[in-house]
């Protein structure tokens, strides 16, 4: 008879940080998916200004006037999709533009973190504590962005009718369906 037991997963505090990390990574993934679905890619589109791969949203510096122009264009498409009233249009534009203004600095922080990570990993010896600090900072940043984005989504949902929310959800589903 074999008396060797398989170790059971620990239910102590050592599992909690791992679960917390997985949960935060999942939140960051959801943020990225929602952002692309709602129109953050509108920043990257726009004729001859450069697309996603040529200095769009995650590329070169963005001119605030160009961001406003692209948001206006995206909102016009949204208004048509959901048959928005004039009153809704007046409420939705400040919500979307305010969230974009608040979330745009995240882009610079992501670029800085990427540069920091490359620098840390290219040193002669790897500073694990610095890498961990960088990782923790990025998770805090993702959490803050998630909270702001969720607030904007809820604010938009408050302005829309249930039918319009359904139309928007179907539209987002089609966007994600094309992207896999």
Keywords:
180 residues; mainly alpha; Four Helix Bundle (Hemerythrin (Met), subunit A); 5 helices
Description:
This protein is mostly helical and 180 residues long. The protein has a domain at 61-170: Four Helix Bundle (Hemerythrin (Met), subunit A), CATH 1.20.120. Helices cover 72% and strands 0% of the residues. It has 5 helices and no strands. It has helices spanning 15-38, 64-82, 86-121, 128-159, 162-179. Helix 1 crosses helix 5, helix 2 (64-82) crosses helix 3 and helix 3 (86-121) runs antiparallel to helix 4. The longest helix has 36 residues, at 86-121. The protein is elongated. The chain starts with 14 loop residues before the first helix and ends with a helix. 12% of the residues are buried. The model is unreliable at 33-58 (pLDDT under 50).
Task: Please render the helix and strand layout as text.
Elements: H1 15-38, H2 64-82, H3 86-121, H4 128-159, H5 162-179
Determine and state the CATH class of the domain at 61-170.
Answer: Mainly Alpha
Kindly estimate the percentage of residues that lie in beta strands according to DSSP: under 5%
Class computed from helices, strands and strand pairing? mainly alpha
Oligomer: single chain
> What is the CA-based Rg, rounded?
21 Å
- Helical stretch count? 5
Q: How many strands, which pairing sense, and closed or not: the largest β-sheet?
A: none
CATH architecture of the domain at 61-170: Up-down Bundle
Shape: elongated
